What does this fold into?
Amino acid sequence: MSQALAAETVRVRAPGKLNLFFEVGGVQQDGYHDVASAYQAVSLYEDLWATPSDEFTVTISGTVDVSGVPADDRNLAVRAARLLAQRMGYDGAVHLDIVKHVPVAGGMGGGSADAAAALVACDVLWGAELGTVELHKLAARLGADVPFSLMGGTAVGTGRGDQLSPALAKGRFDWVVVPSDAGLSTPEVYAHLDALRSRPDIAAVPRRPDVDPAVLHALRAGDPVALAEHTRNDLQVAALSLRPELRDVLELGEGAGALAGMVSGSGPTLAFLAADPESALELQITLSAAGYEALHVHGPVAGARVIPT
Ligand code: ATP
It folds into this structure.
């Protein structure tokens, strides 16, 4: 790469997320469910390079199966770049080169991270300097999880999950993440939850969803044992009903020392909370020996950031 070209390329890294707590309320008039989520950004990142171009184009590669990711205008990162160009009245375009590490359709917000990365990269590349508040507004138009990938850290999300307030978290939390070969569609998981909730044994939330204060207390205290006692994901029952085989993996991880095992977001990625880095390593080894891909990550980490090239 020539120096001139290198200077014109902006590199951004954006994190995937785990939902430490996810309560799903009723369907709103806009078709979205009212939710309350505690998010944590974790050290599994998407890398994106933005280069000036005559057209909006995207190339996608990575350490995960990217065959399900659209390489055209449906790509959430391309939509983000177009939205920013429209917002600032910019008539140029951009080429985006995305290297994915977050499992696709895995419930870890990989597409949202790509969109957040594209917003930050194009903001710098085109000299828009929109600032956090404006970028957040654009992010919310792209998807419920996009604002959180911009923000990073640990946060509570309400509404669609996009009304964010930062949450204090002390120290670091160690997670072992187990991706699945095939993804799950988020709308399909929500629809399945709605169907299950018509059964008497799986009740809907009777009030406005809210994050359990015990979760926020455990995060503030940096206490993974207390966090494990209070994690919850309302989408888990639906994801496990669609993918019953995930129960065996959850049992294996919990039997191998995880403090808690849970479906991440809409799944099918599983997330196991470990007491410390050493326990996470042991858990990772046990799960790998049983034939599962297992990744040791930690949180909280920063949101979408420019990486100097
Ligand atoms: P979330 O947890 O935010 O609901 P997810 O992590 O389950 O999302 P993603 O990896 O974000 O799922 O992808 C969901 C779908 O979005 C994919 O199946 C794909 O068709 C589409 N998509 C559009 N753009 C992207 C992108 N840049 N990366 C991944 N998927 C994308």
Remarks:
- The chain has a mean pLDDT of 93.
- The longest helix spans residues 110-125.
